[in-house]
Amino acid sequence: MQKIILYLFISAITFPLTASDKIRGYIFDGQNEPVIGANIYWEKSNKGVTSDINGYFEIDIPGDHQPLIITYTGYEPQRLHIHDAKDELKVYLKEDTQQLDELVISRRTPGTVSQRSAVAQTQKITLGEIHRAACCNLGESFETNPSVDVAYSDAATGAKQIKLLGLAGTYVQMLTENYPNFRGVASPFGMDYIPGAWMEGIYVSKGTSSVKNGYEALAGQINVEYSKPQTMDKFSLNLFGSDALRMEANADAGIHLNENLTTALFAHYSNDRHPHDRNEDGFLDYPKMRQFNLMNRWNHEAGKYVAQYGFKYIHEKREGGQDLSHHSFDDPYRITLNTDRGEFYTKQAYVFSADELAESVALIVSGSVHDQKSLYDKTVYDVKQKNLYMSLLYEKDFSHMHNLSTGLSLNYDGFDEILRTTPYDREETVSGAYAQYTFNFNDKFIALGGIRADYSSLYGFFVTPRLHLKYNPVEWMHFRASIGKGFRTANILAENNYLLASSREINIADNLHQEEAWNAGVNATLYIPAGDKEITLTGEYYHTRFNQQVVVDVDSDPHAISFYNLDGGRSYSNSAQIEASYPFFTGFTFTAAYRYTRSMSDYRNLLTGDTRFLSKPLMNDYKGLITASYQTPLRKWQFDLTGQFNGGGRMPTPHTGNPLWNERFDPFTIVNGQITKFFRNFSVYLGTENLFDFRQENPIIYAANPRSGDFDATMVWGPVHGRKIYAGLRYNIPRY
């Protein structure tokens, strides 16, 4: 038994290998984008298949040997002789230059793709969608997405917070390459740690998720996939600059050492060191920043064995506070954050069987060390977080109708943390096991049920059940429903250290409980034929209710922030959204969406004992989004325009005798636009963010006296910077 366990732990996460009776593969264009609707057929056969939204296809092997033909409008046909049916194909189409003068592209790859086959509601944000905006990092990748909001948490540190389903980003499970990442101290700044040029795609799942990835994900999951050394360009370069003197450079290279071993190198440098104080309040509008970011990843394939390895290092420096370039202060209020972060991961997989009844075992191991040294004026906050994650997975298809997945997991978090002179060191180890069963009835009805049991060294034993249902009575109509539980450990100072950019007193209750919530949601997606095009219409509703929560209370006392247990109180969030997209004419895409959010919680005054049931502060009541994009024939030019219509919301309760801010903030609109010119191996782009220069005029309360009891830089509800004009260049050397 010990030998078997050891063998499993050196095995790995799998990519399906080709069955002996089918050819499987992917079709890509010259930009590494999946080709949707490519025709694949055997030369002497009148039967064939088309590639799906991921460029994937499967085709039966004929009785006699024939060349495989792949065609797509505007590209040269491919004629392939298949010698080994066990190898998964990756085919890269080349533009048909002989027809460029008369060719009109009749189909454009969508930027955001709904995963039709996914049991849970999932959207893929492709690289094409990411390129529609000034995307320099993950936090800037959601400007054209109606579901995910990313906003500054304060007006001093540059910390950004995701909001999904009316909940803060700490309730969204962040994954990179399907393993948890950016936990704890990395969560306020992790949006800046993934350069946009490195990403292959972003997968956004709402509501409860699979038990495979753990017990967290109370509101949803965001999984980032990096470019793969097997398929990425030989070399690519991305240069970016703005009128605010922000400069960025990204470079990556994919190297094929031999048929079985590939590697990729990624490098990023950003410099945003120019001081800005447009409202002349004496404080920098946003911090001066510099970041170095390096990554190396490897892929090794040897028959049924597949292995991946990756290493990453980040160094970042942020400087905020009072502006010495335009003002003179004898003893300035300064904020500095110096961060060093190292990461590693490995995925090992062995496939016992790769036919229609697949069977595989896999191991994922990842780890990180995050060292942040911070100074908020006179307040020292230093933290080093060490994380280790391990997951052993086994999966087997008993038939097309029945699938079983089971596994073990281990997660360790260690914090060496000090605030001023008080240490807050702690450790938590969580070990667990899960089982997940999938029932698939003719791809019409799918039920996925999972349960996991975990033991925390801090909170003891807990159980996480989850259920997903999918029903599509006809091809163009898909219904989904989900319900499940989630748990989370609140790391108060690590996840909220940006709140130190205020004079509020921080009160942390003793014996904070593990957070626990149920999430339930329904979704309907219709793909309605309209002429030779398709209208995509989506409606959804999600409800999240907390059984236990660590309340962040900025309402009971305008001079304090209190963290305490919900303890039988009420806390929930409702989110309803409708979205429609339609390509009105060739090369044009259009999406319109509206979301209404109602997020409520009990807030208890610890001195008086009074409790008020209030909407959560600094949360928009609604959001509207309109995006339009037009790509000219032959993909020479692209024009993008996005309008965000943000509703008003409630501010934290001001002091009754001396109110320094309003009780509510008003609705506001942000408009972004971009023009891109394409050439054979490179493109240039010019754009503007916040076209009409809307800014929250005074995001810092009492900036004139930052050491007074009224100073607060955390009252941010809108943009802290105005209009930005930017330009950039993307250059690549294709692999094929």
Can you give a write-up of this model?
With 736 residues, the chain is mostly beta strands. Helices cover 2% and strands 54% of the residues. It contains 3 helices and 45 strands. The protein has a 22-stranded antiparallel barrel. The relative contact order is 0.12.
Show the helix and strand layout.
Elements: H1 2-9, E1 22-28, E2 39-42, E3 48-50, E4 56-60, E5 68-71, E6 78-80, E7 89-92, E8 112-114, E9 122-126, H2 127-130, E10 149-152, E11 160-164, E12 167-168, E13 172-176, E14 179-180, E15 199-206, E16 220-226, E17 235-242, E18 247-256, E19 261-272, E20 288-302, E21 305-321, E22 334-353, E23 359-376, E24 379-397, E25 402-419, E26 422-423, E27 426-441, E28 445-456, E29 460-474, E30 477-488, H3 492-496, E31 505-508, E32 515-530, E33 533-548, E34 550-553, E35 560-565, E36 571-581, E37 588-604, E38 611-615, E39 622-631, E40 637-646, E41 649-650, E42 664-665, E43 668-678, E44 682-689, E45 724-733
Parallel strand pairs: 1-7, 13-16, 31-35
Antiparallel strand pairs: 1-4, 2-3, 2-5, 5-6, 8-9, 9-15, 10-11, 11-12, 13-14, 15-16, 17-18, 17-45, 18-19, 19-20, 20-21, 21-22, 22-23, 23-24, 24-25, 25-26, 25-27, 27-28, 28-29, 29-30, 30-32, 32-33, 33-36, 34-35, 36-37, 37-38, 37-39, 39-40, 40-43, 41-42, 43-44, 44-45
Features:
736 residues, mainly beta, 22-stranded antiparallel barrel, 3 helices, 2% helix
Distance N terminus to C terminus? 47 Å
Report low-confidence residues grouped into runs of 5 or more: 1-20, 97-106
Number of strands: 45
Radius of gyration: 26 Å
- By secondary-structure content and strand pairing, the structural class works out as mainly beta
**Biggest sheet details:** 22 strands, antiparallel, barrel
Instruction: Give the count of helical stretches.
Output: 3
The pLDDT mean sits at 90
Helicity, in percent? under 10%
Q: In percent terms, what proportion of residues is strand?
A: over 45%
**What shape does the CA trace take?**
globular
